[in-house]
Records
---
Amino acid sequence: MPLSFPVPRTLQILCIGILISALAGPVIAYELTTDTGTIANGDPVTLRGIATGHPREGLQVWVIGKNYLDISTIPVNNDNSFEFELKPSETLNLASGQYFVVVQHPMMNGEFDIYYDAASGKVINRQMGADGNTIYTMSGAGSLQGPASANALVSAISSQNVDDTFTTYTFFISPPSALIYPIGDHAVGDRFTISGSTNLAAGDQLMVEITSSSFQPTRKTADGGFSGSAGTATVVPGQGGNNRWSFDVDASEFKPDEYIVTVKGITVDVTGSTVFMIREQSPAPLITQEITPFATTVIATTIPVPLTTTPAKSPVPAGLAILGLAVAVMRKVRR
């Protein structure tokens, strides 16, 4: 069942995130090393914050999960700061699931009015009765588990006859994962980025290896034909419960082949893998340019046509005209 923590009467949430300040009296405020609330086995859980009032008993930290209980007292430094950490060795073997953290401040009387009795496995309210009053069983037979136990603890600290205050946090433990987003095919010479998601903590390192699937060990005198890449990727904060990582690839020296990408944790045991193809670089396309012929300007010219004059025909045949002329001459001579 989901856990809904009530806000204590002395506390008020001021903003999104987990910054809490008191209306009166000492203050507990803290920040977290993870923004996602999802922790991989083998990663630490660290809470840092401020608790004013210099409680001589320090702060009491309750970590509650299914079949898991850890109660410890941590000091408050002179500058009012405090820090609590579940080390990697402690989270490594935690079962997957939700965990609840309650940070308890003793407030004015300097005592934890709600405390855990290890001998009986019960949670006691010391303000009720001479020897205190049992609130519920936290461990052992008949004990409350997980969210039911955390809700009961918060209700006990919120009791009207208890001046303690608290703040809360939840996180999830899950097996380490490193996922690789689909890469798609690329060509020789491409530059691209391989990326993915992980539940490892921001700042963790991943080893990324890219190898040709046809690569095989050869004698040192032979050309093994290896092409690929390797390096590290740093996990950065993400959203939706997972962080992100990315790795840049320059395929200028790659040979056409199928390639295997392997992602491995350096400090946490986790592995992910996938494949993609590098193909021959496509030849540069021929650039065709349409050539437009020069425009020809035709200049219209008018060439005068010589006129041919045809003499008018005489109505008298030429022969008769000559004969008439000869007769006229002869008559003139005779005279």
---
Amino acid sequence: MTRTPHLTMLWEQHDPAVQLRDRFGFPDAAAAGDWVARSVERHWGVRVEACERITMSSRNALAALRTPLGPLIAKWSVASDVFPRLSALATLTSWLERQRLPVSAPVAAVDGRLQVELDGTSIGLQRRIDGDLLDTADPAQLRAAGAVLARLHRALAAYPDAGRVADLVPHPKTPGTSIAGWLADAPGHLPDPACDVLRRLLSSAPGMTLPGQLVHGDIRSANVLCAESGVAAVLDFEEMRWDRPVVELARSAVLLGTRFRDWGPVGTDVHTALLEGYCSERPLDGVETHWWRVLVLWYSLLMIPDGPDPTGWRAAALRLSGAAPAALP
């Protein structure tokens, strides 16, 4: 193998060489690249011509590889407590690909495993999917992302082994309980008018009788690759949880513009375009419609920092609370 990989942090402001040593136990980039190349050749039978880049986030790492099969991505974790979940999610993602969902499915190892545990890590291999991060200024991409999210929710609801995954992922409280508890002790830096609107919406909300199911957990621009006006792939299922689809839809609408180091709000036109695409595949019922309005405002308020607000989350929440809710198609 040639070329020492370039080291980067996905979003943290740390020295990547230090983190590679302290978190992953490699003395330098060359040693990490050699380990990845040897692991891929041994377990997948694929020769690595170059490990071009290693990107780290928390206790996870991703290596961009050049191989005779084309560009591949090796992802590994040293967080042993999540190894069973990573294995279950690899199986689920492979199943989603067979349902014709646009996902980055794992490449099976020589022995058939989709996630391999070795040297204190859990590692998987994927093909690189060409595309650009979702552009929230492109209405066609937004509608396409909404439609794919609806299809993903429908597929996840039908996953045959959902019970196994459900035992391994977080189960948040129902939104009514979560929001009521949060409002009872809302941080003092939040705008009172927007909090008052949220209280009124919550008080008139119907009971959340909708069943929970598996949801992606982290739909945002950084995890949606697009090609022209369509979705090429939904990435990174590691944050999967058990929740209501409308909760994920609302959270995704608010956070859709966030990337790795850019956490600014989007406008209600973006919310509406995502919602239109979603409803083209899975229309919301009356209960979900009300909760969509509650949840979009709540998630917007949650993002307001206690201190400088350079991207304008406070102004966005105030506009949202004072404007008519996004219209349903």
---
Amino acid sequence: MNKFRKPLNKLSIIIVNFKGWESLKGCLNSLVSIKETTALDPEVIVVDNFSNDGNLKKFKKLYPDFLFIENEGNYGFSNGNNRGARYATGEYLLFLNPDTIVSKDAIQDMLSLAKNNLSYHIISVQQKRPSGKPENPFGVFPTGWTINGLIKTIYLQLSKKYFKKYCGSQRVIFPDWVSGSVLMIKQEIFKKIGGWDEDFWLYYEDVDLCKRIRENGGTVALLCDVSIIHQHGGLTRKNKKNIAFYKTEVLKSKHIYFHKHFTGISQILLQLFLVINTIFLEKLVPAIFGLIFIPFFRVRVHLFIYFYLWKYYFLALGKKTWIIPSKLITRSH
């Protein structure tokens, strides 16, 4: 029997890591403090997506009370979360990014809100940068009105779905979706809807999860009067190819989202509009500047994005599906 397996408890915390050890240390230290100074005793599960750099053994020794699982490869955020959830014994699951710093108030208030409002199937909290500046960890579901930046701005201002950039004076708001960097859900409900969709390698998996919750009658809620710190860092910002790759993943995942949640002529028009907007409106001019000003780091990033996007679109056309494994877009990841 696994020594970490224990009777069903209140909360299991699942963290997916890929070479973000320094940030992860801060996250785990905040959880150690919560376990030592409060009555909360969450089960902590860390899934390492095959960082393969020797640090996993060190962390197992540093945090012997936490369960560490090594994935056989970097199969994405959804896959790592699902694997961690299979080991979880908690009534509630809390999915955390490794670059978050958690407070006991945030966890206690999320659990309390979930317990007292059974229709709130997904719960999150406000997020702040280390400077204290509030973030925007929620939004509306993607549609044709949100593909283009200018159209999206006008739509959000006029739509009844418009949410204030920050929480304001409300204690709880009910956006369409909340960020997967801090997301609590009852394990029973998580299993019922099939967990995270692993067709999303990174990005939009949280939007998709919230969409399925809403379609099944659940409510998505975000607490405004408590927060966690989200540091935003790690591998995605290390070099131009990484930045370009992850920015391409955002656009690829948007295509997959439209593929899964729209049908018929609506899906065809959305996919076509997204391709045109991406290739000819948003990314063409930055890519041209990338050719002209190659020595400059930021403009070179746009050149790589443009290359990856064309590669993705040719692969999607050849394979007749929007769901293309990320490793086929660039062999360096």
---
Amino acid sequence: MNDIRYSRRTFLVSSGAAATWLALPAGAQPAATGWRPTRPVRLVVPYPPGGGIDIVARFIAPRMQERLGQPVVIENRGGAVGMIGSENVYRAAPDGLSFVVASADTHSINPHVYADIRYNAREFAAAAPIATLDYMLVGRPGLEAGSMKELAELGKKRELTFASSGVGSSAQVVTEALKSRYGLKMLHVPFGGSAPAAAAVMGEQVDLVMLPIAIALANRSKVKVFGVASDKRFEGAPDIPSLAEQGFPIGLEPAWIGLMAPPRTPPEILREVNLIVGEIVRDPEAKKRLTTLGLAPYTATMEEFAAHVNAEYDRWGKVVRAAEVKADSPK
């Protein structure tokens, strides 16, 4: 799932004249615009401090500041599974001074799970990708299965329980996709984050959980690892096979992380931010840091990124609807 296949997608561009992603001619090449902010720039993290998205934001912020010539300030606006911070940027002025550090959870999944969401995810302007987040499927130490094949056989004989970081989380949706595709009997047990979900599996309270790779690797000796939930192995743990190579592809790409701007943000602003963030992410230091966080660096033009976000909105939406994942917005 780390291999993002743009060749089969229509490239789209976020236009300042419209609040949706519009098609660009094939082969259009990015160019520096020379835009620079005249005041401090906000990177709104829609989660509390200390989480993976927050760490990524704090890594790129000072490097953006060096290149933009203005302070780049992290603003944590956690709550409602990322919807409060996302709405804040959705309603901000389209002047290049506000970006949300968005993800598949906030922009590809939440819109399909929460009927009362107060922003239109498809109206945001896609600025720059940063990384992709993959998962590992792990089980409790005493689970009666030692391989993915044995786990699938067990899951067809009796009901297994699986934890997640919350209702509508990408961890739940990835597991629901696995459950649906292979006809497994599985009961969802939501927790308030990846850490308590992992603790429940290590404590033999729940059978399985899809964990962000960094958390899975940190607790590798305390769980049974069944594989990476993607088409390819993770570079930081090359000895762990993917579910796909074991004969159990899920059909979802890794969850994306990137900067999204308010609707109607001018293309020249988006393009400059895209070039700057791409330069940061391509640096070897960034790749090393992201890999330690269980992430894969992700660079693309703003057209490619918009196309990817658009396709992932539809892809994750299909899985959410098939699994009938619905919830009232948390307060």
